[in-house]
Amino acid sequence: LALGERDFLRFLGLDAAPPPRQPQPVPRVLQKIAREREAAADAGLARAPCTVAELGAPGDALRALPDRGFLLPSDSCLQRLLSFNLSAIPDREQPTAAELGLDLGPSTYEELGPALELVVSLVPQPGLRAGPPRGRGRAVAEQSVPRPHGVLRVRLQGALQHAARRQWSRLGLLLDVQVVEDGEPGRHRHPRALCARLRRTLRATLLVATLDPARCRHPARPRR
Amino acid sequence: AVPAAPQAASRSLCHRHQLFISFRDLGWHKWIIAPKGFMANYCQGECPLSVAAYLNSSNYAFMQALMQVVDPTVSPAVCVPTKLSPISMLYQDNGDNVILRHYEDMVVDECGCG
Hints:
The complex is a heterodimer of chains A (224) and B (114). Helix content of chain A is 19%, strand content 32%. With 114 residues, chain B is an alpha+beta fold.
């Protein structure tokens, strides 16, 4: 069986065995999806082949790419350059859907509100050592969050396709978070505790669904 | 004429055998996060003419078994999976990314002559 290890790794889509480093934490969203799939399989429920139902897209794999970006000095509540390594996706796999997950942390009675406004903009070809991006690029998502807690999900299919067309090795996104006091847009203040907590604890993960045409020759059409 | 159905299932006839693949035993648990292993199973057994018509078989399996009786140089019908189910595997790649991949047709649910 030891001889079969290389073949098995290739079958998994890996060139070599991952080095014995610290095991990576599994994002909760992937844990949940894996558990649901296992339960469905145990119950004998059939799945549509070559479909990532969780993102409503064709595909056979779902990747959680960790954010390798950094906080930016800003007058906002929080501004962060989010950077995702797209080179982790082999050339033979086609990205079909992307969802940004922003973990805003737990909810407590003391920390209910104020509301937040989030803007995610595309940063052309970000480099980790290139410093903060010059100006904000095209906004790809804008969202009001009346009660900031838990994981906020933002669909980013357009941004991913844009990056894929230009063969970028990284997807760079500028996340700008503003506080909306009393629910009135435009009256931005800086409640220090909430912003400090967000700056300390905010975690971002990019979920990417991909399709390997060699494995999925006739993917099911996504449901409208 | 259709051969008579076998009276009792013989151990040597084509059927599904249980096989659990433990990733820990293989040392693959270092990158495969879940599941810990899976019930892969496999098909093994003979497909003689007398059972080729009954064991979840294709019509061609029966024809092949018939041809083998007439001409022993023809290879016999073989015991193959006739129903497979998928599994999803959660694993880590070389770049610290966690991947959930769906693999169709990984678990043998039923066997038959083909």
